[in-house]
Batch of 3 targets.
Target 1
Amino acid sequence: MGIDKDKSRLNAIYKPRPTAQHRISAVPVPSPPLTKEEMQRLVQQLEIHQIELETQNEELRQAREELEVSLNNYSELYDFAPLGYFTFDINGVIRQVNLTGAQLLGVARHLLVDTPFTRYLADAQGRELFPRHLASVAQNSTPQQCQIRLKGKDDSIVFTQFRSVRVDGSSKKDGHVRIFCSVVDDTIARRLKEDLQKSHDSLESTVSSRTGELAGANKLLAREIEERKKTEESLQEAYSVIERLKDRLQAENIYLQQEAARQYNFGEIIGQSEALAQVMARVEQVAPMNATVLLQGETGTGKGMVARAIHNGSVRRKRPMITVNCTALPVTLVESELFGREKGAFTGAFARQIGRFELADGGTIFLDEIGDMPLELQSKLLRVIQDGEFERLGGNQTIKTDVRIIAATNRNLEQEIRTGRFREDLYYRLNVFPILMPPLRQRSEDIPLLVDFFLAKFNKKNGREITTVPKETMRALQQYQWPGNVRELESVIERAVITSQGSTLQVLDRFDSFRSKEDAADKSWQEAGEERKWPEDIKALVDLERDHILSVLLKTGWRIEGGSGAAVILGINASTLRARMRKLGIVRK
């Protein structure tokens, strides 16, 4: 800015003014000679103009001296600045560079001018990035930044930070665009950061190794204690073990034949509880038949899996089982989805569509959430069940179909009949062979098997190796009421697999509706005003969550954020971790 001011001042001063000679030449020479007074006046004017010229010359000299001082100051600031300054044209050719920039590249300054900057880039990535950076700067008036590796002295690599801005021509004639860049040498800072990271990783490795040694010593001690206990118990139970083995050998064939198909997995159904065994017994009874089956039960109890087991156990298993979710389909499309439609049946029906009942011909159709079917379609469904025939939407041709119907609902259909939302005659047609699915809270003995199944499933899905489930965790899972049934349990286990550290499953969910089966069955202790006493070895899930978060914070030195912070280890956001710490009362002392 100081240089521009000096130039403007110099131009204003240096602007030529008309001299006395010019003025004299501009006046036409009079024919008569000048008088004495005119000659004196002319001499006076010449003296005045001479004084003006001397004044102008003095001002010009002073301005020139000030300009030289400003130029010297600018040159010193520009050349000896701690940053490298480069001026490029739009093609990346160096037009100007200061001494710091030349020293950064290890090349003499006069050798850099009018040379392409790409020859000083260290790698192909930089040669690809630099032109894009220049183009971006040329198109935007705001400063742009990037990181580029340059070749320094002796072919060394220099890590630099570029900050560039567009500079347009200063005059109307000069319309060229220049890119002005400041370059910061980031090599030392980067190396220090890498050295710091290596030191940190080394420390983490040392801590982890020492922790592993201590954990191994603890496991060895625990194993020795457990072996001693087992030895003592084996001496006491030797005779009873022999008797049990004898009985097991005698009943082995019968046990394997009866339980192989149903104990752990009937199709996709996991469990061995008495309640589930009764369901499987009814499934085995009805599967070979063609009777209509109505599955009732809460959401998430596995009605779809039971329907699949019935189909796989029937003579129709080689044909498809078509599933229709009556809740998911829009009301306006339920009829066309079930029975199909003819071309032009309604606006947008550009082609004929085969319905689900036609697709299921010779197989099974599973009507899930049948209680949500619109009332006007229930009569058409009743006709299909009774006569095995229907017409497509917009058509008049009767179509025959041979399907087995399995319906499922989580609603009380008898209550729906009383409120007028479900046809009574359709209910009787569907309720030929009812099967009531037990909720998970009534088959808590199946929870360990389900946990093992889901644990193996999500270990494989997420690449984890969680093999241990603490007893208190399993006890808490068995005592929870599970309003969402197996589906809720699956979600809890998947979430726990993701958040758990090490090989032990850690369930951090807080079950607000937690209530043990004993509390549900016996409330006499509440009515008597007595306080419930839990066994000392059982912790509430909120206490387990607090202990786990506290142990991770201690391990990370109370560091919450960052690559090795507690939030990353726990798999949650730092803000979420702070909120949980406040809620659980975790404060660093």
Target 2
Amino acid sequence: MSHFQEFIEFVTGPCAHLLDSDDSQFISSFQTLPEDAQCLFVRGLNRKSPIIKTASLDYEEINNTQQHMNTLLQQGFYQPVTEQHSDQLLTTLTKPELALVLRQAGVNLKSSDNKATYLEYAMEVCDFCHLSPLLGTENLVRLGFETQIRYFLFLFFGDLRSGLNKFSMRDLGIMPTRRGVTQDAARFDFIDEAKSAFFYACQRKDMHQLTISQQLELAIDVKHFPSPQGTLANINYDRFLCKLGKAIVSHQPELGIEILALSGEPLAQEKVIRERYKQGDKEWVKQRLEEIIDNPDSEVLLTFAEDFLDRKFNQKRTSVLTDMLREQSASLKIDEMYMDSVENGVKVHYQKQGKQVFRTENRLWRALFGLVFWDELFENQQSSLITEFDFKPQSISQNQFYITCEQAIETRLYRMTSSKAVFMQLSKVMLEKYGSPNGIFRWHRSLLEVLAVFFDYVDIDAFKAQMRMMAQDFKTYGDGYPDLMVVDENGLRFEEIKGPGDQLRKNQLLTIRQLRQQGFAVRITQVEWFLDPLQTYAVVDIETTGGRANHHGITEIGIAKVIGNQVVDTWQTLINPQRHIPQKITQLTGIDNDMVADAPLFVEIADKLKDYLAGCVFVAHNVNFDYGFIREEYQRLEQSFRMPKLCTVREMRKAVPGLPSYSLANLTRHFGIDMSRHHRALSDAQAAAELLFIINQSRHQKIADSENHLPE
């Protein structure tokens, strides 16, 4: 109730001018209810579904539940479930309830069928009459005043995804908020803007629940919809039309194109051009592309228009994305152990050459943007957060930051006279604001080090130009930044890493091209895989108290270190898991509570283990199990744990396909591998190492075969 009152105070305070007579009447009616009736209604608001089992609304702290339920039903706060809610009701039913409904419809499914199958059949064959055994307010009720509540949530949170549960998450410390730095103001100046934005937000969100026939009917009705009022309404209007047009264009192309053409979204405009080109309307397409190039609405649309015109009308055979990859990229061979983390593989490669390398991606540039414009983003009344739950400043969400704060932005950029001065200023902001929740970037312990290196090399004018571009169009230039920042004898450069088969995305193209235009060195590096015969592998096996890393603990670790085709070292230790070892685990492993009573805690061997694993590939049979437990132990110590990893189950399936089982016991039996003590860590690790020899022999042979078959 206190959360709901906090919520309503915002709606009736800063947002009072955005309420119509129905909204005000709902609030007035709610406030005249007895307190227990209010509590009973608010309990329902916190449910996931608006359809609620009446029996579940019985709470010890609410007196005379049935009496208050009758009051709420009489005044419409709860309502009976009617035929229009049939599909929604079906999705809330349990499997036994769905079985009952299906029997009413004359359908009997197997008890072994899953709930999804039951629901699919129920949606197809059941009418409202088949739901009769479950209906009646003594069984089910539905929340009333849904439109008002939904509108109020929209006014408070600015979207339709959020609910009142965020208040509880805040109080429990699960969700950090920006309490104390928000402004006491509404998101909208006028009720027409608020209602318009809400209308199109609802259309956009609810569209995915419609069948294709309902979507087609909606598309026909769109021409009668009211014109969007205000920035947020226009954003939701454009996105709604884009979503609707894309959904129906394959069913009714002309109608779909008509809907897409109404949208201002670049993706919608692209889709219109592609669809009309497919229909053979090439003269119109060419004219439209030339119009965009002469007077572009956005950099995204301009890039598409130039590329599409070149490829479809000027006989250019490759896209601009392909050209950038082919003509402006370098090639690098990296050990295939980094297949799951190609950027980290390139980073390690460069570090071995003595270069400074940092994983940056969007994190660096978003942090730079957030730190440079902290006051304008989070302290300025024109741009700051509305409620403490806001993820991003409204001006960023609506891509209006530069328009809203142009003078302050230009003044700040004008005062940036040197890289050293900017670094000192951003360091000060970090010192004062470190850890403050914000929707622009995440804080990192290494951020100051990265900034220090960046500002040692950056050209201040290039930096200022990029900050201005982000301020003017954060929607386009808020992401797509290269993976790495590298410093070597040639200075500082950024590097986008692409593994075999990886494609350059359009947002990456735009951002990389923009950085280059500002004078930043940006390289695209395409990685090829190779297998290093001298790579060191750490074949790991652990024993645990159970199967869940976040709940159970490690009792033993065994490691066989492998180079080439031999085990060069082993390491083993029992671990005190600081929890009881179940009897069934002892029967499996032979490890009991007495054996680990005097064993070291994980914290006592953590540093030694990390040192032992350094520079290795982490190998295990079902690697995510062993890796996950060890990573969880380090997380409990507030330490990170990250290594390249290889799974002997997955790799054995590739090396020797078609075996009936790939369990460790069956594989060792199949290949005649000696295993002295199954389910003891070191014995299992040594057995898995033997499997690794077979795997690597197969991998080397495949590489040799492919090289022998290369065309001359």
Target 3
Amino acid sequence: MNYQLQKLMAETISAFSGLFSVHSESIRQFETGEYFVIYSKCSKRVQSILGAEREVLILGNVYSDQQVRSLKFARRIINESDGRLEPTLCVIVHQDPRGNTKLKRWGRENGIAVIPVHTSTGVLPREQEMERLLSFEFFTQDPFDITGPVANDSQFFGRRGEAQELARKLQSGHIRACFGIRKIGKTSILHRVLAELKENYDAVTVFIDCQRDDVFGLDAASLLDSITGSLRELKANGRSYAEVNACPLGNTLSDAARQFQALLNQFDLPVILVFDEIDYITPSNGGAPQWREGFVGFWRNVRAAYHAAAREDRKVSLLISGVSSRWFSVESIDGLENAALAFIPEEYLSPLPRGATNAMIKNIGAMAGLRFDEAALEAISSFCSDMPFWVRKACSSIHGKIETAARPVILQEAVVSPMLDAYGQDEGAALAKVALQHLFRVYPELRAPSLSLLKDNADISASMRLTLIRYGIITTKGHISGAMMRAALVMVAEDVPMIEAHLEDRIEAKTLVSEWAEELAGISYRRNTMERALRSLVINFLRMSALSSKNSPSAKSALLSVIPQNRRSELEPFNLDTIAEKLYWLELVAVINKHWQLFERIFGDKTAFNDNASVVNDRPDAHAKHLEPSDIALHRRALRWLDERITRV
């Protein structure tokens, strides 16, 4: 048994005493690694901080380079504990200088909030220092930040039943489809279905990722050849799963189809073909023109082979996933009967049910000390149209704006809503716009009816309305599904391609404005620029003051001490930068006056500073009042006075 590992386990138990009570301890092997395993119960204080109601797993090793197997081992222990351990939380003690970042990232991928504790010497901090370390490492991670497909139970919300039902039907010889807008979760559910098939069913599965260059670069005959070759390899080696090997044999389509059909009849187990990113092998892909004419032939021969297998009592199943259902719902393509019509069902992966969206936010947020009241959950879900990826991105933005020291914190709708609006303007609308642009590119028939929703009493056919509901663009009541969706539609509507515009519209219309209006616009621009500079100045000087003396209050405390009590409680959950962004002009002025000793060397005369700040606050461009040239001159002079002093820094 590793002496260093035993020593580190004893040190961990000693360092965690008072924060955790140890219920069991052991040294265990996993793969080629050795770990100590501790089951511990949090003290009431730590339980409140971490939101942990069950025992917490503490794992440790002495390796200088952490590997992903540590998280695999942690996940296995948690799964085998039969509910005894917290399912989404563990502490890992390690000696890898770069391990904290790696362990947190792998934890997110495995649905576990990892609290890494690094020690280079084998000695750990005690008591309050250890509590601060655990709190910091726990609350600074972003569990909403998932970039790839989600398959883990703890991160897979609202789709588990769908995935299990899909796997069961595919085992029985069904043809299923999974269409939906970008980032709705199609690939995640596909991965989940594949995992269900591998774990619970006897079947032979070939996965065809159509976005691969070597796959969509094939023609219809070559793709059938490649699928046949992959199935042949599976039959020869006895394995149950393979990704298609793109290896064209140069057969004609009829020869390729004949060999494909003959091979299907040789399998006693169900054969399942899973097509992901199907849009790449449809006529929508202008980069692969061979699929304009090859689409009908490919699906005609796949359909023939499917029916032939059914006559021989063989089970063959298909799962089709992609954005556009267009080419599986039209009767003909370039005058040819569409063989995929009525063969591939028009089925969609729609947004999450509202209850599942709220549960996702609630459960993931708890991993970072963010707790949302019901109204806040509804606000986020509605804003993001219940699109799981959009929800994660919005919540990740919220996570970044909440002060770590304030957690755990309960966020109410009044706090969340302005942050959602800011996220929508900064990033969310653009994210949704990309999804809509892609949808309209591969399914252009949806563009006009979608944009007509921006007008009152849009006239949309019943069938088109149903399609828009399935894609999550509108609700069942016919309303645009959320603020992000509406903002994206507005942005798409503004991007009118030049070829669609009339010649006379190509010349930009120049608005006739008076010199007066131009003057006001210039003042507004100068004031906004100067105000941003003043915010940055205030934050930096308060931070310098906080660092200059051990007895100085934190920069955040110094800032909030000037704000009235009602505003202070409103701003308390946010970090310093976010608070500064939310301060009104007069509140910025009050902070400078309160800490005048910090800013005196910049502004010099306190009375002059307040007089000029008062003039700037008057905002002549924002009030419906009679203006004289003297008002404009006074405002310009005040801005110049402040500008000159700020630019000295």
